[in-house]
Amino acid sequence: MNNKFDALKDDDSGDHDQNEENSTQKDGEKEKTERDKSQSSGKRKAVVPGPAEHPLQYNYTFWYSRRTPGRPTSSQSYEQNIKQIGTFASVEQFWRFYSHMVRPGDLTGHSDFHLFKEGIKPMWEDDANKNGGKWIIRLRKGLASRCWENLILAMLGEQFMVGEEICGAVVSVRFQEDIISIWNKTASDQATTARIRDTLRRVLNLPPNTIMEYKTHTDSIKMPGRLGPQRLLFQNLWKPRLNVP
Amino acid sequence: MSSGSSCSQTPSRAIPATRRVVLGDGVHLPPGDYSTTPGGTLFSTTPGGTRIIYDRKFLMECRNSPVTKTPPRDLPTIPGVTSPVGGEPPTEAGQDHLSSSPEDKPAGGEESQFEMDI
């Protein structure tokens, strides 16, 4: 906590003439206000690495979504189904979140974890995603926790070597199988998608017969049925935006 | 040429194959310095510029940092996700539960699979 406050104070240069106690209190209030505001605007106070922490190339945000059983898709579905868990800027901050979240294999029901670069929503119509696509790997039950961890560690550690192309990763827990996917910006960039595929094979240590499927987000929308469980995620995410009841 | 002879007198040394740096809890890494770490092996230059690259092993070692033991201050309480099912606020015991090693966790059809090789 102290680390975070110290870092935040560096950004708030206007507060430096105040004494320590008032300044801290004011920062706390301001942060609360910003957090309240973030519920609607999606904007957050800058997250920075604490002193002596290992910075990441990008900040990332954890999201969680869950389909409410038996509830029809409504205009509130987007807000109800996807929640921001938090944003981190350093390796240590990542572990603070990750160590206090259940692993995907222990999630119940129809749930997803999303880990996206800060500022990119885990939705196909985000500017960063709208021309993009994703590699999809279907996993038999029991593998999701391990594969998800390997996937996100590779992403955070910049193992994919595709410049700015990576947008985020998703793990989807379903009844018969689990699905992990990694999203990139430019679906038409075959050199990038091939490199992502090869890196996935390396870091996930997948069995040779594992099927990897690349899907553009526009195809996911046009042919939602072929996507199986993921279709529900997309419906939940984009229907409210289109005001479909 | 004196400069040439001094150059030839420089003894050659093998490039060390590995360099292991042990970081104690109190070690101070240079904050915000994107090009230097005590190990000197974490950052790499790519055609797109310098990027911060970490391998899996290093990231896993950072998991043991003391700061990771406490949850983020604004971690939302989501039963079954960030707190135990039932919606109790994350207590000290709850944190231990969530961050404990897999074999310590109850209800375990899938527990062993975390460590299982594919």
Automatic annotation (TrEMBL), chain A:
<dbReference type="GO" id="GO:0031047">
    <property type="term" value="P:regulatory ncRNA-mediated gene silencing"/>
</dbReference>
<comment type="similarity">
    <text>Belongs to the eukaryotic initiation factor 4E family.</text>
</comment>
<dbReference type="GO" id="GO:0000340">
    <property type="term" value="F:RNA 7-methylguanosine cap binding"/>
</dbReference>
<keyword id="KW-0597">Phosphoprotein</keyword>
<comment type="subunit">
    <text>Interacts with EIF4EBP1, EIF4EBP2 and EIF4EBP3. Does not interact with eIF4G (EIF4G1, EIF4G2 or EIF4G3). Component of the 4EHP-GYF2 complex, at least composed of EIF4E2, GIGYF2 and ZNF598. Interacts with GIGYF2 (via the 4EHP-binding motif); the interaction is direct. Interacts with EIF4ENIF1/4E-T (via YXXXXLphi motif); increasing affinity for the 7-methylguanosine-containing mRNA cap.</text>
</comment>
<dbReference type="InterPro" id="IPR001040">
    <property type="entry name" value="TIF_eIF_4E"/>
</dbReference>
<keyword id="KW-1017">Isopeptide bond</keyword>
<dbReference type="GO" id="GO:0000932">
    <property type="term" value="C:P-body"/>
</dbReference>
<keyword id="KW-0648">Protein biosynthesis</keyword>
<comment type="function">
    <text>Component of the 4EHP-GYF2 complex, a multiprotein complex that acts as a repressor of translation initiation. In association with GIGYF2, assists ribosome-associated quality control (RQC) by sequestering the mRNA cap, blocking ribosome initiation and decreasing the translational load on problematic messages. Part of a pathway that works in parallel to RQC-mediated degradation of the stalled nascent polypeptide.</text>
</comment>
<keyword id="KW-0963">Cytoplasm</keyword>
<dbReference type="Pfam" id="PF01652">
    <property type="entry name" value="IF4E"/>
</dbReference>
<keyword id="KW-0396">Initiation factor</keyword>
<dbReference type="GO" id="GO:0003743">
    <property type="term" value="F:translation initiation factor activity"/>
</dbReference>
<comment type="function">
    <text>Recognizes and binds the 7-methylguanosine-containing mRNA cap during an early step in the initiation. Acts as a repressor of translation initiation. In contrast to EIF4E, it is unable to bind eIF4G (EIF4G1, EIF4G2 or EIF4G3), suggesting that it acts by competing with EIF4E and block assembly of eIF4F at the cap. In P-bodies, component of a complex that promotes miRNA-mediated translational repression. Involved in virus-induced host response by mediating miRNA MIR34A-induced translational silencing which controls IFNB1 production by a negative feedback mechanism.</text>
</comment>
<dbReference type="GO" id="GO:0006417">
    <property type="term" value="P:regulation of translation"/>
</dbReference>
<protein>
    <recommendedName>
        <fullName>Eukaryotic translation initiation factor 4E type 2</fullName>
    </recommendedName>
</protein>
<dbReference type="GO" id="GO:0016281">
    <property type="term" value="C:eukaryotic translation initiation factor 4F complex"/>
</dbReference>
<keyword id="KW-0943">RNA-mediated gene silencing</keyword>
<keyword id="KW-0810">Translation regulation</keyword>
<keyword id="KW-0694">RNA-binding</keyword>
<feature type="compositionally biased region" description="Basic and acidic residues">
    <location>
        <begin position="1"/>
        <end position="38"/>
    </location>
</feature>
TrEMBL record, chain B:
<keyword id="KW-0648">Protein biosynthesis</keyword>
<dbReference type="GO" id="GO:0030371">
    <property type="term" value="F:translation repressor activity"/>
</dbReference>
<dbReference type="GO" id="GO:0045931">
    <property type="term" value="P:positive regulation of mitotic cell cycle"/>
</dbReference>
<dbReference type="GO" id="GO:0000082">
    <property type="term" value="P:G1/S transition of mitotic cell cycle"/>
</dbReference>
<keyword id="KW-0396">Initiation factor</keyword>
<keyword id="KW-0810">Translation regulation</keyword>
<feature type="region of interest" description="Disordered">
    <location>
        <begin position="64"/>
        <end position="118"/>
    </location>
</feature>
<dbReference type="GO" id="GO:0008190">
    <property type="term" value="F:eukaryotic initiation factor 4E binding"/>
</dbReference>
<dbReference type="GO" id="GO:0031929">
    <property type="term" value="P:TOR signaling"/>
</dbReference>
<dbReference type="GO" id="GO:0005829">
    <property type="term" value="C:cytosol"/>
</dbReference>
<feature type="region of interest" description="Disordered">
    <location>
        <begin position="24"/>
        <end position="48"/>
    </location>
</feature>
<dbReference type="GO" id="GO:0045947">
    <property type="term" value="P:negative regulation of translational initiation"/>
</dbReference>
<comment type="similarity">
    <text>Belongs to the eIF4E-binding protein family.</text>
</comment>
<protein>
    <submittedName>
        <fullName>Eukaryotic translation initiation factor 4E-binding protein 1</fullName>
    </submittedName>
</protein>
<dbReference type="Pfam" id="PF05456">
    <property type="entry name" value="eIF_4EBP"/>
</dbReference>
<keyword id="KW-0652">Protein synthesis inhibitor</keyword>
<dbReference type="InterPro" id="IPR008606">
    <property type="entry name" value="EIF4EBP"/>
</dbReference>
<dbReference type="GO" id="GO:0003743">
    <property type="term" value="F:translation initiation factor activity"/>
</dbReference>
<feature type="compositionally biased region" description="Polar residues">
    <location>
        <begin position="34"/>
        <end position="48"/>
    </location>
</feature>
